[in-house]
Amino acid sequence: MPKSALILRHLAFEDLGSFAPVLEEEGYRLIDSEAGVDPLPDPLDADLVVVLGGPIGVNDAAAYPLMVAERDWLAPRLAARRPTLGICLGAQIMASALGARVAPMSRKEIGFSTLTLTEAGKGGPLDHLADTPVLHWHGEAFETPVGAENLAATSACATQAFAMGPAILGLQFHPEAGELPAFERWLIGHSVELAGAGVDPADLRRAASAHGAALRDAGQSMLSAWLQDLPT
User: Fold this and answer.
1) Alpha carbon of 214 to those of 41, 57, 177, 193: distances in Å?
2) pLDDT of 130-166, one tens digit each?
3) Which one, 37, 94, 95, 118, has least CB within 10 Å?
4) Per-residue pLDDT, 117
5) What is the 8-class DSSP label of residue 50?
6) What is the pTM of this model?
7) CA angle 31, 35, 36 (to 5 degrees)
8) How is the chain split into domains, by residue range?
């Protein structure tokens, strides 16, 4: 029987990206779920849950009630330490479900830059990302949940990743995206946000051309290492 991986997506083009073939190679059957549209199943059923990014935030619950629904849905899964991976918004929802604060940053962090790994980060799967510029695209950030370890930082954001044991991993950045031509969908889809943040898409396109392939390889190696360390 293949293992099941529920993929919770908030925006069509913010998908699994380079992570999809890794999950398939590791024997996972991918189950796509559209946030706010598809009913959420039992939170404990899937062998793995991956919560992807999106342009809304956990503090937008008045306008988007699904933020509360997803947080409450994740809470029992996280309490049971069932394998869960969150990317950007996904990690913020996980942090909120674990009782941590998520708040706006003074300035959005959009672009490619390297991480500064903590000692805990160097000792785990994120070590595969050392010295590789990763894609950042967020205007809010989470505090490290109580009982979790902070794994990485940048000059703009001190909390770039957290882990709670081997099965719970939240990533503020995007190791699954940033390779052209697929990255062009991000530049088009987020054109209004880029203009508002004063970010030139041509600069991001050049950075993606320079770093996208290396990020694909490093991100896949990181995910593979994390999956192999999951408790059975």
Assistant:
1) 36, 29, 11, 26
2) 999 999 999 999 999 999 999 999 999 999 999 999 9
3) 37
4) 98
5) E
6) 0.97
7) 135
8) 3-228
